[in-house]
Model the fold of this input.
Amino acid sequence: MSDIDRQAMMEVFTFEMSQMLEQLEQIVIEAENSYNSDQINEIFRIMHTIKGSAAMMMFNNIAAAAHTIEDLFYYLREKNPNIPDNSKLTDHVLESMDFLKDELTKIQEGDNPDGDPAEVSAKISAFLTEIKAANNDGPAAAAEEPAPPKLLEKAPDMVLENAAQNEPKLDLSSIDGLRTYSATLTFQEGCEMENVRAYTLIYYLKNMVHDVQYQPEDLIDEASIPAIRANGFKMEITTDKDYDTVYNYLSSTVYANEVFLEEITAAKDTVPEAPAQALPAAQAQAAPAAPVMAEAPAPYAPAAGADEKAARPDKEAEAEAAIHAASRKAPVQSMISVNVSKLDNLMKLIGELVITEAMVTQNADLERLRGQHDLESFDKEARRLRKIIQDMQETIMSTRMLTLSPTFFRMNRVVRDMCKQLGKDVNLEIVGEDTEVDKNIIEQIGDPVMHIVRNAIDHGIETPDERRAAGKSPRGTITLEAKNIGNDVIISISDDGKGLDKEKILNKALNNGLLRKAPAEYTEKEIFQFIFMAGFSTNENVTSYSGRGVGMDVVTKNLEVVQGTTSVDSIQGEGSTFTMKIPLTLAIIKGMTIKIGGEKFTVPIDAIVNSFFPKRKDMFIDPNGNEMITYYGEHLNVVRLCDFFDMPEAARDVEDGIMMIIQNGDDRICLLIDELVAEQSVVVKNLPKYMKKVPGLSGCTLLGNGDISLIIETAAFFDR
Done:
């Protein structure tokens, strides 16, 4: 097997395993207090799939850990015992999941997954023994459990090469009770690696039936993939299992789409069974993929007229089956898997297209032609082109949008673990988890959300006794909410705890030498912002969750990367609300090009409220020496960008410039600029690494005439 093939298999394995572990964590957290049969079946199915995939990829430690959990839930599924401690069961499963996650991380980083599963497996096995003892179930039950799978000891390419040719067909005519089935299995479109999935099915099927022949024969050859996609994976299975058992087992194959099964040779001294119609695998009788084919609860009931069909000549029956198969409608496929790098490249191309369109429509040669010719037709087509590019941009951006649900639901585990360690009782309420954000932004906000939730539990929510003493419910509540406002996403984390202590925060800031003015001059919001500073903590003792002043510092650093902001509102004794404002996407934004001293800058349109021509009579200096202007009865701080960026050649007289009002949350200030140039879509580029980080600048862009424009980070002016 080539390195490329191996890498492709690895990508499919890591993607599917991460998805299954995420799904498993949600199920386990939801089932904390009581596991129902559906949840037990689903956990069993997930662990069985992980075990099989890991064994195929030679990750024997992952397969061993997954098999131990599978054994536990096999027993829970088959025996339906009384579980003495649901919380303890959840602890063991989550600990095993952490082991699997650590091994998956090693694989994703290119390392060898070499963790020892002995400890987690021993705990699971001991807990299974404890459950059996509590239900008076002795060692005899162990004999009914599935035997561990034989893990691969050869390299995957050697194993596949051995499976490339079908083994000689055995003479089974002397064995009574055997049936032979003709089966065709199709996979869901877009699942990829159909040959590997077919091989996995055959690998386990050979240990469960007397004989199996299949087409295509050479599953290691990637040329078999188009054949499987076009004609399905065809098998001839000889076994003593009945029709329902075989059909349900094939239907439980991961990514199975349709299964067509027909009995071509009935067992001796039995009634022949009718061929089944091809049904979507999702509609098949529910039966999780067990390591052995368990007998069906009841024999298959032949349809009316089955005896006559069985009596027909073989050729006629085959022709009828072929006609029936041909008449099936192809399933409608609405989802496909696309590599993330392809979406990133597509986004880069649309960005270049936006820049090129601006260069064409703002070309200097066009301006010269306008004085000599009527360019109405060109302008009309240019507007049409701009509209098409804008629609393409919005469509491509929508393909990169992901919901916040995985990030939000991950907090259930954080809340559970912290409550158990700190002795607190907290309910996490999640609202707006379907809100969509660019995938690159989601990668940056996971840690900020986690640190704020941890801060709310550790610092905000009181213990049950403290809450009772304060007249509150013993159980605290944290609300995690997301919503769209314009081109921004607002994420708020609220708690009904004790709130922030302004005096304590201010005294800590004073002792750390962080104050830049008299303590009495600080507003409530300014005081709360101290908690985001590196090394700042009001906890006197260092714990596993707080005391080092690191967590909240991560919030501001990660949000700066995605040009987001955060603010805090708190009422002592009632609770706190942390609000994060982040853009939907960072790739392409609408901006206003402005001039300051002959240089061009771009201000994000979403931050602009209004612009006006100022008058000297409206300007004044406040008692703290800040320059301000009165605008319709509102007093606004003024920031002269020429001074902020040290550009002495810019306009100094306010009446020679323009005031631009910008907004950040509920706060508004004025920027003094020289000139408004134009509004246009711009592609955001990172500043070169050799450039020192300059406050007030977040990136750069290329304008239509080829000039480079620096993008202004408006939030930086509010910090000052």
Remarks:
- The chain has 23 helices and 23 strands.
